UniProtKB/TrEMBL annotation, chain A:
<feature type="compositionally biased region" description="Acidic residues">
    <location>
        <begin position="489"/>
        <end position="510"/>
    </location>
</feature>
<dbReference type="InterPro" id="IPR010613">
    <property type="entry name" value="PES"/>
</dbReference>
<dbReference type="Pfam" id="PF06732">
    <property type="entry name" value="Pescadillo_N"/>
</dbReference>
<protein>
    <recommendedName>
        <fullName>Pescadillo homolog</fullName>
    </recommendedName>
</protein>
<feature type="region of interest" description="Disordered">
    <location>
        <begin position="300"/>
        <end position="341"/>
    </location>
</feature>
<dbReference type="GO" id="GO:0000466">
    <property type="term" value="P:maturation of 5.8S rRNA from tricistronic rRNA transcript (SSU-rRNA, 5.8S rRNA, LSU-rRNA)"/>
</dbReference>
<dbReference type="GO" id="GO:0030687">
    <property type="term" value="C:preribosome, large subunit precursor"/>
</dbReference>
<comment type="subunit">
    <text>Component of the NOP7 complex, composed of ERB1, NOP7 and YTM1. Within the NOP7 complex ERB1 appears to interact directly with NOP7 and YTM1. The NOP7 complex also associates with the 66S pre-ribosome.</text>
</comment>
<comment type="function">
    <text>Component of the NOP7 complex, which is required for maturation of the 25S and 5.8S ribosomal RNAs and formation of the 60S ribosome.</text>
</comment>
TrEMBL record, chain B:
<comment type="subunit">
    <text>Component of the NOP7 complex, composed of ERB1, NOP7 and YTM1. Within the NOP7 complex ERB1 appears to interact directly with NOP7 and YTM1. The NOP7 complex also associates with the 66S pre-ribosome.</text>
</comment>
<feature type="compositionally biased region" description="Acidic residues">
    <location>
        <begin position="124"/>
        <end position="134"/>
    </location>
</feature>
<feature type="region of interest" description="Disordered">
    <location>
        <begin position="1"/>
        <end position="145"/>
    </location>
</feature>
<dbReference type="GO" id="GO:0000466">
    <property type="term" value="P:maturation of 5.8S rRNA from tricistronic rRNA transcript (SSU-rRNA, 5.8S rRNA, LSU-rRNA)"/>
</dbReference>
<feature type="compositionally biased region" description="Acidic residues">
    <location>
        <begin position="56"/>
        <end position="96"/>
    </location>
</feature>
<dbReference type="InterPro" id="IPR019775">
    <property type="entry name" value="WD40_repeat_CS"/>
</dbReference>
<feature type="repeat" description="WD">
    <location>
        <begin position="665"/>
        <end position="706"/>
    </location>
</feature>
<dbReference type="GO" id="GO:0005654">
    <property type="term" value="C:nucleoplasm"/>
</dbReference>
<dbReference type="InterPro" id="IPR012953">
    <property type="entry name" value="BOP1_N_dom"/>
</dbReference>
Length: 620, 753
């Protein structure tokens, strides 16, 4: 006999701990535990058997891996949290006693934890970090637009805004934006960084209010982590592409509402000598900017205004020269001579679509009218190589004004107004430019080509804006594809039905004939067939047409009959499935059916809409 | 002053006592008395002080200064204190003794023996003068707890060392009377040493009164006496310094060593070794290339699942078909937010400038974060298979013909056709209903040949499987009727009659049986009545089932009530019945004979037990896992058994394989009522309360390695449901793949291939 096994000493009972016991073990409060879980990325696990994991109790609890908790016990952040607890006690005591200087001293030496080791731990490689910055970006963009209050210090908002701007600058600089989607929730952007798709959601520019049922502490803890993560990721991204991080902020421009333009990208080689004065420029007020800074500012301005900004195109030029050196020479395989010809090189692959799509707008110059959001379209247009200007009301820093002759497109989002008092010059300018609605820009980049401007012209009804991400599953309803052949036929026949009452005047005879034929078509058993034949004779249908009709209907009904039989067999064979298989089958069938019904609902709706439109067109 | 002095004085005195043990013992007595006196004196002194406050300092000025000096000394140098204290004390002592004139003066005389001078005190006479003899203390036991004497007859000792006996004390009544008599009883207290009540003095009563009134117990004490000012006030300032020593240099020259110490610190601060204050902890993070150094070899934790990407319906300008209709909108709004499939309703805006802020934006981000840190994550393998591949591939029913396919004819009863039986040659059917009618009709055409009417419900009926004789058994309440069908060929009829009603009855068995076999007299034989009647014991109820042994000699019946599980085994040739089980666990539902072996299947509510009849022992217990077994049939090969239950399950047992079912099928929507294997064709059928009959192909192989093949062939529908009951019994025709089914709607159908 082997050793007796004690209950609860191995297996799930040992591998999982409940949250309460985890807190007890770590000797911290629930709030601290939550904070730790958020920072360390520890989440509850679902044991295979809850009863076994909870020592026989089936009470609803959440379980954590015992090892996760064991690692947490040695976490420096936990130590700092404990120190903070002691500090809070000391501080409250000092305040209670009125020992202000002691309190100030304590406050100055408040324990602060750092998160860089956690970042390194959670994301051992840079790719891991890039893969996971979606949520971080969403949060940064959200908090950049939140009004500060007692819980959200202005520093936080500022930092988030800075991170958001830095990210946008980087995306614009590397031209890695791929897709954009204007949704009712906000704007989805998708960029491709280091071969990872990063999708983030930016709210429309309105003041958001934090609802009362949202725990701000949780959000702020997440934000704490995300800020650190983004900082490190941006540092790496910037330094890898030869830029200075953090990009220096021009205070004056920022106060003028320049947004992203307030930051200037500097390549490291350029910035190395001028790093010190740069820092100074941030501090000093607008009046006292040194000459060097002015020169720098001018340089960045001209860089922006030039179609191929010097600092933007520099790395690409380098890389292209590198690639020329390593030309891929196909070698014929000795064993299989046919195989070589179809090999594609990395260069060929890169050359194909990217050059086209990433510099989609490079030949064009845009001008934003004041009602369209600058932050959105400046980002989109510039990340596809276009130049963009805006009126002063949308913020400072526009590289050109409205009267610039190079403007090819005006992004305008208001109904057209007949203007009587325009000068000849203005009129000429207006005719030369194309006035498009903002959706055109987004649809162009999603399509990867310049679309026709007419459907998007000012004041016209826009074509629907579709998601560039597609539907969530295969075989979902696709609004771009026309309806299937069968459905078209159906609709035609229905149209006939609709038409039918109109030609009622043709005479009773025809109606009778038709009804007789229909009866023939529906007749199945011999008796009813006989009756139908008699009815047809009475109605005056000649036998040939009657036979034809019958044969047609037979053919129609036969195919489904065979299907029916097979279906019946299948149904019967289902009896022989095991219970597990049966349940799985039912589930799969259910989801299939649900998808199909969703699709069908959309299709019928579209059909109805089309019909309605047709009718309206007829009426109108 | 006196009050101040009391404490240190007594303390010092004790010290003095310890210090001077060599002093004559006679000295100790006065010391004692002095102590007492000083205690008593306190208030007196203060009282006297009150009288002449102003003069007091002048009187005692010298001693005061002395006292002060000693106090200072005490504070500064404790070592010296003892000596000075002693001096003080002695001086005071002498003063006191002079004042009071209590202590006898010693005479100094030259000792005769030693030649040295010695002090001689006068003899103390214990008279009224003496302090201790002022009061007559009859009990001189001393200061000991009086409870030591609780158990003794005496309470102490008098001066002579004789016991002072406990004075007699009356009982409670006496005490009470005493209190009544004595008007001062309530102001007296019990004295323990005297063991009697002593009246309290007026002073003591006054103290008690003061204590009650929360006042200072001492009448002479004035808590609010004016403060005596010794050193403050006009003209009392100290003019002269305490000591004449010159001011030391250290008081006014800066310390060199201190300067050195400070200078080291200053130098350290200047050099930056000591920071004036710690650098402030800043929340500003410095970023650096964190991924420059290689990471640990740990696998990175799995990234959190990404949220779903938006679809067309989320667009600000979706195609119109995505917009919800009013019904859809109402449905969406009626649902709880957590039940909604989508958390938004598609909406269309004609231009981007009209799109408002999304009001649930923060809420959604928050719920995403809650998902990230509160939701357990499970990795699920997504099954990417076609669901139709899950359906087992079975041979097509078309290739497994013949099997009953359609209803060829219908025979109607007035009540529920609960039981049917088909003659062993497969040509005749008898069917019984709940009104007590048994009909005999042909399978081929459905023509009724004969009808019998019995009193009460027909519980079961069954043909005898023998081919050389022809009769059937009908079970009604507590009675089994053996009936011979009409129009039999004469040899068969004769043989049947001789079997059921032999002229010479077989000898009665030794063991008497409660079952009576009754044959009516030959004269009263008619085709309408039974030729033989077996009367089951009283209160055995309706026979639910009749099962024949394949030879046709033995027959088992199961009754709904009665002892021994209601199972009776009847032997026709011996006209004898016996109960095979003395006692059986569970209610017996069904019994069956094994087709080949002397085995006997007994189905109780949840188990099927197999007994060996020849060895009379239990072979096996099968556990189908059915809550309530309704039906059972054994395959003609005897190796397979199907069991059906009211809980819709059908279990196929391979008897050589296991006690557990080989296959459990669940396809009927209601309780299974009846099961039947075809005797020759590889078919079996089940009927259920859902009104359907399911026909299966069931091929079993002699090869032990091959599992039996079960193929569903056909669902026969045609019976209507009545009062929740569907098809009550199915039976197969022996030589044809035809099925006969009796339903609760009173119809008996024949299903042909």
């Amino acid at each position: 006999m082997g050793r007796l096994r004690q209950k609860g000493k191995a297996g799930a009972a040992k591998a999982y701990v409940t949250r309460t016991s985890a807190i007890k073990k770590l000797q911290c409060s629930l709030a601290d535990f939550r904070r730790l879980c958020i920072l360390k990325g520890i989440f509850p696990r679902e044991p295979r058997s809850r009863k076994k994991a909870n020592k026989g109790s089936s009470a609803p609890t959440s379980f954590y891996y015992a090892k996760d908790i064991a690692y947490l016990a040695h976490e420096p952040v936990l130590k700092k949290l404990r120190e903070h607890k002691a500090f809070a006690k000391k501080l409250s005591r000092a305040l209670g006693r009125g020992e202000w200087s002691d309190a100030k001293n304590l406050e100055d030496n408040k324990p602060v934890y750092r998160l860089d080791h956690i970042i390194k731990e959670r994301y051992p490689t840079f790719i891991d970090a890039v893969r996971d910055i979606d949520d971080a970006l969403c949060m940064a963009f959200l908090f950049a637009s939140l009004p500060s209050n007692a819980r959200l210090p202005p520093v936080l908002t500022e930092n988030c805004a800075r991170l958001a701007a830095e990210w946008q600058l980087y995306v614009m600089h590397t031209r890695s934006l791929r897709k954009t989607f204007l949704s009712i929730k906000g704007i989805y952007y998708q960029a491709e960084i280091m071969d990872q798709t990063v999708t983030w959601l930016v709210p429309y520019q309105f003041t958001q209010n934090i609802p009362s049922d949202v725990d701000v502490r949780v959000m702020l803890t997440f934000l704490e982590l995300y800020q650190t993560l983004l900082g490190f990721v941006f540092f790496k991204l910037y330094t890898d592409s030869g830029l200075v991080y953090p990009p220096p902020l021009d205070v004056k421009k920022d106060e003028g509402g320049a947004g992203v333009g307030a930051f200037s990208l500097q390549s490291t080689s350029q910035a190395a000598p001028s790093a010190a004065p740069k820092a100074k420029a941030v501090e000093v007020d607008g009046r006292k900017i040194s000459g060097k800074d002015v020169r720098q500012a001018i340089k960045t301005m001209t860089g922006d205004s030039a179609t191929n900004g010097g600092d933007i195109d520099m790395p690409t030029a380098e890389s292209s020269s590198m690639e020329v050196d390593e030309e891929f020479v196909p070698q014929q395989s000795t064993s299989d001579p046919q195989s070589t010809s179809s090999l594609t090189t990395l260069k060929a692959l890169e050359a194909l679509p990217q050059s086209l799509t990433t510099s989609l707008f490079s030949p064009y110059t845009f001008y934003l009218s004041r009602e369209s959001s600058r932050s959105i379209f400046e980002f989109i247009v510039r990340s596809f190589g276009g130049r963009i200007g805006w009126p002063a009301s949308s913020g400072s820093g526009s590289p050109f004004d409205e009267s610039d002759d190079s403007i090819t497109h005006v992004i305008i989002d208001r109904p057209p107004v007949e203007r009587t008092d325009e000068t000849a010059e203005e009129r000429e300018r207006r005719l030369r430019r194309k006035y498009v609605q903002p959706q055109w820009v987004v649809d162009c980049i999603n399509a990867g080509k310049i679309l026709l401007e007419e459907p998007y012209a000012q004041g016209s009804t826009l074509p629907p804006h579709l998601s560039p991400f597609g539907e969530s599953y295969e075989g979902a309803y696709d609004p771009t594809v026309g309806l299937g052949k069968q459905t078209v036929e159906e609709s035609e026949s229905e149209d006939e039905d609709v038409v039918l009452p109109e030609d009622e005047e043709e005479g009773e005879e025809q109606v009778a004939e038709k009804s007789a034929l229909r009866a023939a078509a529906t007749a199945n058993d011999p008796a009813s067939l006989r009756a139908a034949e008699l009815a047809a004779e009475v109605a005056g249908v000649d036998f040939g047409t009657f036979e034809k009709e019958v044969r047609k209907s037979r053919k129609k009904s036969k195919a489904p009959a065979k299907d029916d039989r097979e279906e019946g067999e299948q149904d019967m064979n289902k009896m022989m499935m095991s219970n597990k298989q049966k349940k799985l089958y039912e589930r799969m069938k259910y989801s299939e059916k649900k998808k199909a019904s969703e699709r069908a609902v959309l299709e019928t709706k579209k059909q109805q809409l089309q019909k309605q439109k047709k009718r309206e067109a007829k009426a109108g | 002053m006196a009050a101040l002095d009391v404490k240190p004085k007594s303390k010092k005195r004790k010290q003095a006592e310890e210090d001077a043990p060599a002093e004559p013992p006679a000295f100790s007595a006065p010391v004692e008395s002095l102590e007492m006196l000083s205690d008593d004196e306190g208030p007196e002194d203060t009282a006297s002080d009150d009288g002449h406050v102003d003069e007091f300092p002048e009187i005692d000025a010298a001693s005061d200064s002395e006292e002060d000096g000693s106090f200072e000394d005490e504070e500064d140098e404790e070592e010296d204190s003892d000596g000075t204290d002693e001096e003080d004390f002695e001086e005071e002592d002498s003063d006191d003794s002079m004042d009071r004139d209590i202590f006898p003066k010693p005479k100094t005389i030259i000792s005769d023996i030693t030649g040295q001078p010695k002090r001689v005190y006068p003899e103390i006479e214990p008279d009224y003068d003496s302090d201790s003899s002022t009061e007559d203390a009859p009990n001189r036991v001393g200061d000991v707890p009086m409870h030591w004497y609780d158990d003794l007859p005496h309470v102490g000792y008098d001066m002579d060392g004789k016991k002072v006996l406990r004075p007699a004390r009356g009982d409670e009544l006496d005490k009470f009377l005493q209190t009544v008599d004595d008007p001062s009883a309530w102001t007296s207290a019990f004295d323990k040493t005297a063991q009697m009540d002593k009246p309290l003095s007026a002073e003591e009563l006054d103290i008690i009164r003061r204590l009650y009134a929360n006042e200072v117990p001492d009448a002479g004490y004035d808590p609010y006496e004016p403060m005596t000012e010794w050193f403050t006030g006009k003209g009392k300032e100290e003019v002269m310094p305490l000591s004449a020593a010159p001011e030391p240099k250290r008081r006014w020259v800066p310390s060199k060593w201190e300067k050195q110490k400070v200078m080291t610190i200053v130098r350290a601060i200047r050099q930056g070794r000591i920071l004036p204050s710690k650098p402030k902890t800043t929340s500003k993070l410095e970023f650096y290339s964190i991924w420059a150094e290689p990471s640990t070899s740990h696998a990175p934790p799995l990234p959190a699942p990404k949220p779903r990407l938006p679809t067309n319906s989320e667009s600000y300008n979706p195609p119109e078909e995505y917009l919800p209709t009013d019904a859809e909108r109402a449905e969406w709004e009626a649902l709880d937010p957590e039940d909604r499939e989508r958390d938004y309703l598609p909406k269309k805006y004609s231009s981007l400038r009209l799109v408002p802020a999304y009001d649930r934006f923060i809420k959604e981000r928050f719920s995403r974060q809650l998902d990230l840190y509160l939701a357990p994550r499970i990795q699920r393998v997504k099954l990417n298979i076609d669901p139709s591949t899950l359906i087992p591939k079975l041979p097509s029913p078309q290739s497994l013909k013949p099997f009953p396919n359609y209803k060829s004819l219908k025979f109607t009863h007035s009540g529920r056709a609960r039981c049917i039986s088909i003659s062993p040659d497969g040509a005749w059917v008898i069917s019984g209903d709940e009104n007590g009618v048994v009909s005999l009709w042909e399978v081929n055409v459905g023509r009724e040949v004969k009808r019998w009417k019995f009193a009460g419900k027909i519980g079961a009926l069954e043909w005898c499987p023998r081919l050389d004789v022809s009769y059937f058994v009908v079970g009604i309440e507590e009675v089994l009727h053996f009936v011979i069908p009409p129009n039999l060929p004469s040899p068969v009829l004769v043989l049947t009659q001789s079997l059921l009603a032999p002229t010479t009855l077989p000898p009665a068995s030794e063991t008497p049986s409660p079952v009576k076999w009754v044959t009516p007299p030959t004269s009263s034989w008619s085709p309408d009545t039974a030729i033989l009647t077996v009367q089951l014991p009283q209160s055995s109820g309706l026979p639910k089932q009749i099962a024949w042994h394949r030879r046709g000699d033995y027959m088992a019946t199961v009754s709904s009530g009665g002892a021994q599980g209601g199972v009776w085994m009847h032997q026709i040739t011996r006209r004898h019945s016996q109960a095979p089980f003395k006692k059986i666990r569970g209610a017996v539902q069904l019994v069956l004979f094994h087709p080949l072996k002397p085995h006997f299947f007994v189905a109780t509510q949840q188990y099927v037990r197999i007994y060996n009849l020849s060895e009379q022992k239990l072979l096996k217990t099968l556990t189908p896992g059915i809550k309530w077994i309704s039906s059972m049939d054994v395959h003609p090969s005897g190796d397979h058994l199907i069991v059906g239950g009211y809980d819709r399950k059908l279990c196929w047992f391979d008897l050589e394989l296991s006690d557990k079912p080989y296959k459990i099928l669940r396809y009927h929507t209601r309780a299974i009522r009846s099961l039947a294997f075809h005797p020759t064709y590889p078919l079996f059928a089940s009927s259920s309360d859902d009104g359907a009959i399911q026909v299966f192909h069931s091929r079993v192989y002699n090869d032990l390695m091959t599992d039996p093949l079960i193929v569903p062939l056909k669902i026969l529908r045609g019976h209507t449901l009545k009062e929740g009951l569907g098809v009550l019994q199915v039976k197969w025709c022996a030589r044809q793949p035809w099925l006969v089914s009796g339903g609760a709607d009173g119809t008996v159908g024949v299903w042909c291939s």
